[in-house]
Amino acid sequence: MAKKPVKITREAPAKREPESRSRKAEAPVAAPNGASRPAVIVVGADKGGVGKTTIARAILDFLSLNDIHARAFDTETPRGTLHRFHPDETMIVDLTEPADQMKIIDTLNTSKAKVSVIDVRAGGLSPALEALDEIGFFDAVKNGEFRFVLLHVIGPSISSLEEIAEIAPYVADANYFMVKNHVNDTTFFEWDPQTHAKYFEDVVTSGEITIPKLSELAYEQVELSGAPFSTFIANQDAQGQPAEHSFVLRGYVRTWLARVADEFERVGLRELVSEKRR
């Protein structure tokens, strides 16, 4: 990001307790110093078109606005979408390749950025989790070496919902959030209690995050600008220079990003990734 984004002025609502079926985040494991435990946030889905990169972009804005230093990895090789909007923080990698795994995992403790956001390409979530399991990453998470947050972005289709059971074996020690991204006006089968219950009610999560729909025209203008959401709101271009973005469309993006930040605050995302060793 060329320039630090402006602070979103809307206040977040008071945090609500997670639903009874949700799993509370585990207490941090004791460690000999007060440094932050490195946190890895994986944003992904096996189905394409659910807006996972949009969520990853919103997370990077959210962390920056809260003065949390983060880096990002874009697994959409060779030309990543996340890298286009956040080139300064983002490296393009192949998460299934050992050499690129080393660029991420082997540098977690030495990087100045203690939060690493991994935007997993469409269709790559299950293979990515399998690769992390094979190298022992989840064992390290269980032992308290790292903090792991999985944002599973699901769409309003049966094929997308079926992913929930497929990735369940990998999230036992994760802070696992299901993200309902309203990329359009469709619903997530709330109108059909039987279908909704089949996929949602028996899933143990740390919470559910609902991402509201952003005006199509506003979203298109941000895409054309090639700038982060917060930079667009500040009426700057991708290089941080003054721009002439529509006041109306900037207003839509500002309101949308504030609501997304509300959701991240509600589930305690900031506290999860900035937690200290005790």
Keywords for this structure?
seven-stranded parallel beta sheet; alpha/beta; 7 strands; globular; Rossmann fold; 278 residues
The structure class reads alpha/beta
Low-pLDDT stretches are 1-32
Structural shape: globular
Q: In percent terms, what proportion of residues is strand?
A: 5-15%
CATH topology type of the domain at 39-214: Rossmann fold
Helix proportion range: 25-40%
CATH superfamily of the domain at 39-214: P-loop containing nucleotide triphosphate hydrolases
CATH architecture of the domain at 39-214: 3-Layer(aba) Sandwich
Average predicted confidence as pLDDT: 81
The multimeric state of the shown protein is single chain
Sheet with most strands: strand arrangement: 3-2-4-1-5-6-7
Helical segment count: 12
What is the terminal-to-terminal distance? 32 Å
Radius of gyration in whole Å, from Cα? 18 Å
Q: Strand tally, please? A: 7
Sheet having the most strands: 7 strands, parallel
| Element order: H for helix, E for strand | EHEHEHEHHEHHEHEHHHH
Q: Regarding CATH, which class of the domain at 39-214?
A: Alpha Beta
Q: What do you see in this structure?
A:
The chain has 278 residues and is an alpha/beta fold. The protein has a domain at 39-214: Rossmann fold (3-Layer(aba) Sandwich), CATH 3.40.50.300. It is built from twelve helices and seven strands. It has helices at 52-65, 81-85, 98-105, 125-134, 137-142, 158-161, 163-167, 193-201, 216-225, 229-233, 247-266, 269-273; strands at residues 39-44, 70-74, 90-92, 115-119, 147-154, 175-181, 207-211. Strands 3-2-4-1-5-6-7 form a seven-stranded parallel β-sheet. Helix 2 links the parallel strand 2 and strand 3. Helix 9 (216-225) crosses helix 11 (247-266). The model is unreliable at 1-32 (pLDDT under 50).
